[in-house]
């Protein structure tokens, strides 16, 4: 196996393991985030003052999901907290509802992250030979190539996952295969690529994320190199912090594409395209509408990205050491 082939295998495995680990741990928050982004399943707290004469300083509060057409009425209301959303799902749909869409997520996250990290690694090697090595523009071009490849290949899987997560009927028992058959019958193969334009727009998030991450990582590596050449557990903790910081900044900047993508993937949606959806959400719900679910996204993304990036770096390190040990062991014989 050549050096290039070995590196490809290492990054494929590391990306798959990292993505799977993060997806399992943060799945409940993914479900809440998706429903908050949707036009049909947004959680709000409605303050019921109908049974209280006059104005009461202590109105009753009930938690429920408000239909879209009533969400912007004069009824006093505000969004549930993340804990209340999780509790609401468990009470009305059962604990397993917190893991809706996990099947497609696990099916898709390993190849998605494997394709992403492998493409990123290979693209980085290519762009380093064309542009100033390890410069920000190299990281931007590499992240663009990786995001485009991963989004194109895995969009049908994420489409099915979103539909599953938006299903709030406890007794429906809808499965991923039923959704796949329904979409194929109604729209054909192209039906699975609804929202792909929003995914492509979301590549900007990965570009920002990796540019910042690589910059922080380079500083950390440079600083550690002055002290020692050995790897320590503290190094991976620093990679977690770097990943969390870079992803937080990127998510805040590029978040609206997530809301648009979810709206485009809704069943029977009135949304038709990226810019049409973005404009419609802004018109009907204001700026808050295109940032709905951001708090949940950050709460989910920070640990997910930290876990994913640290796991990725750890697996790459372990596999590299193993390959080197086997290679030099054979050379010694």
What would your notes on this structure say?
The radius of gyration is 22 Å and the shape is globular. Mean pLDDT is 79; it is low at 52-76. The protein has a three-stranded antiparallel β-sheet, with helices on one face. With 333 residues, it is mainly alpha-helical. It is built from eleven helices and three strands, in the order H-E-E-E-H-H-H-H-H-H-H-H-H-H. The chain has a single domain, classed as Mitochondrial carrier fold (Alpha/alpha barrel), CATH 1.50.40.10. Helices cover 69% and strands 5% of the residues. The two termini are 18 Å apart.
What labels would you give this structure?
Mitochondrial carrier protein Rim2, three-stranded antiparallel sheet, 11 helices, repeat, globular, Mitochondrial carrier fold, 333 residues, mainly alpha
Task: Give the N-to-C terminal Cα separation.
Answer: 18 Å
Content of β-strand: under 5%
Question: Which class of secondary structure composition applies to the elements?
Answer: mainly alpha
Low-confidence sequence ranges: 52-76
In CATH, the architecture is Alpha/alpha barrel
The top-level CATH class is Mainly Alpha
CATH H-level superfamily title = Mitochondrial carrier domain
Which topology does CATH recognise? Mitochondrial carrier fold
Count structural domains.
Answer: 1
- Amount of helix: 55-70%
Largest sheet: 3 strands, antiparallel
Shape: globular
The side-by-side strand order for the widest beta sheet comes to 2-1-3
How many β strands by DSSP?
3
What order do the helices and strands follow? HEEEHHHHHHHHHH
